[in-house]
């Protein structure tokens, strides 16, 4: 068991691409840590640098306190699952799983025992003699996990392990992976570009943009208090309302409405300041009747999300999104009001959250 600490990690690829820019990251022992960010932000590069498959241009990688920056992959005690699984097509499932042990020159007996052990915990017992080409996507994914686990690494690195599964299988695999990690309590870095996956699975998470980390926190913290506009617009399964406004004393004028200042920004902004008012659709109370401190306008769109609907109001030319419960959906064209919760609304100044 071990923690993982990255300090000042920079990675420049030939050709002048800076994939990681002086990045610091600390993952606690036994933690399930999600690394979230759009395609191309450097997630895979970060994992490969921890695994030793890429050499950092600067900075230090520590596992369990030991500096492994200069060690080859085989001596770092990490297990990695690649996005495309990277199984050996000519080897059986058993040989694929036992491969890391062979690299370590473990004996035949030990390799077989370890492979059977891990295969058992992943429900692969009956597939040991098959080759990867004879397996479903979900089974291949489990074999890749089993291979990463076989040598009992101190740190698990999972690069978008669920992204090649279809939607239903992906949900099942989420639960399965979460339970497995709970049982093993191995320090795990889980890479995804899917914010819902990160929120659902992680103990803590980091949001990356262009080789940098923009916020670290628990899913609840990152969801409730995005630290900047990048994270605010990246997180959430419905788009967060981010509307330009102007501070007027204890109030703010935004999208034609005069609203109380968000609780978290009180005393921290001055009259006349130009800010962005942020509130998630979850935190707006929608009504068909006139209300104080509300965005007011015509209902432009109603989207059915299953148990609830996303209502888009046209409020003084700005789109304001509010979630409404089943059976309370308005008709498009109706007049509507949406009151943001002052204890959930946020202000952003120069792109950063206003908070003390
Ligand atoms: P992600 O996994 O978040 O999609 P990557 O780590 O794969 O991002 O890539 C980060 C950046 O580094 C991208 O701009 C990508 O084009 C670049 N990159 C990745 N691998 C290489 C490489 N081997 N050579 C040059 N540039 C690379
Ligand atoms: Mg990647």
Automatic annotation (TrEMBL):
Record carries keyword Plastid: no
InterPro entries xref list: AAA+_ATPase, ABC_transporter-like_ATP-bd, ABC_transporter-like_CS, ABC_transpr_MalK/UgpC-like, Mo/tungstate-bd_C_term_dom, NA-bd_OB-fold, OB_MalK-like, P-loop_NTPase
Domain ABC transporter: residue ranges: 4-235
GO cellular component: a single term: ATP-binding cassette (ABC) transporter complex, substrate-binding subunit-containing
Organism lineage string: Bacteria, Bacillati, Actinomycetota, Actinomycetes, Streptosporangiales
E.C. number: 3.6.3.-
GO MF terms, alphabetically ordered: ABC-type transporter activity; ATP binding; ATP hydrolysis activity
The keyword Translocase appears for this protein: yes
Provenance organism: Actinomadura macrotermitis
Pfam families: ABC_tran, OB_MalK
Enzyme class, first EC level, given as a word: hydrolase
Domain of life per record: Bacteria
The entry's keywords: ATP-binding, Cell membrane, Hydrolase, Membrane, Nucleotide-binding, Translocase, Transport
Gene3D superfamilies assigned: 2.40.50.100, Nucleic acid-binding proteins, P-loop containing nucleotide triphosphate hydrolases
Name assigned to this protein: Trehalose import ATP-binding protein SugC
């Amino acid at each position: 068991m071990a923690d993982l600490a990255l300090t000042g990690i920079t990675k420049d690829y030939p050709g002048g691409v800076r994939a990681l820019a002086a990045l610091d990251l600390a993952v606690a022992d036994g933690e399930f840590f999600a690394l979230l960010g759009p395609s191309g932000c450097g997630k895979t590069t970060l994992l490969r640098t921890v695994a030793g498959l890429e050499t950092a241009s600067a900075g230090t990688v520590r596992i369990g306190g030991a500096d492994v920056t200069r060690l080859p992959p085989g001596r770092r005690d990490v297990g990695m699952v690649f996005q495309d699984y990277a199984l050996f097509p000519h080897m059986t499932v058993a040989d694929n799983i036992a491969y890391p042990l062979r690299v370590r020159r473990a004996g035949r007996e030990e390799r077989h025992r370890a492979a059977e052990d891990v295969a058992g915990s992943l429900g692969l017992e009956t597939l040991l003699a098959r080759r990867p080409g004879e397996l479903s996507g979900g089974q291949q994914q489990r074999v890749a996990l089993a291979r990463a686990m076989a040598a009992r690494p101190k740190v698990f690195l999972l690069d978008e392990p669920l992204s090649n599964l279809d939607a239903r299988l992906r949900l099942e695999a989420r639960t399965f992976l979460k339970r497995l990690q709970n049982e093993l309590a191995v320090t795990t870095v889980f890479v995804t570009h899917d914010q819902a996956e990160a929120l659902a699975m992680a103990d803590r998470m980091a949001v990356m943009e262009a080789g940098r980390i923009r916020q670290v926190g628990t899913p609840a913290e990152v969801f409730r208090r995005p630290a900047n506009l990048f994270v605010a617009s990246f997180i959430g399964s419905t788009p967060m309302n981010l509307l330009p406004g102007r501070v007027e004393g204890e109030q703010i004028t935004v999208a034609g409405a005069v609203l109380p200042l968000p609780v978290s920004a009180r005393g921290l902004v001055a009259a006349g300041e130009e800010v962005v008012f942020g509130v998630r659709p979850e935190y707006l109370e929608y009504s068909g009747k006139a209300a104080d401190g509300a965005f007011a306008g015509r209902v432009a769109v109603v989207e059915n999300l299953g148990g609830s609907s996303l209502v888009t109001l046209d409020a003084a030319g700005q789109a304001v999104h509010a979630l409404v419960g089943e059976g309370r959906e308005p008709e498009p064209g109706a007049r509507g009001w949406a009151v943001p919760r002052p204890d959930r609304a946020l202000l952003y100044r120069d792109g950063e959250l206003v908070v003390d």
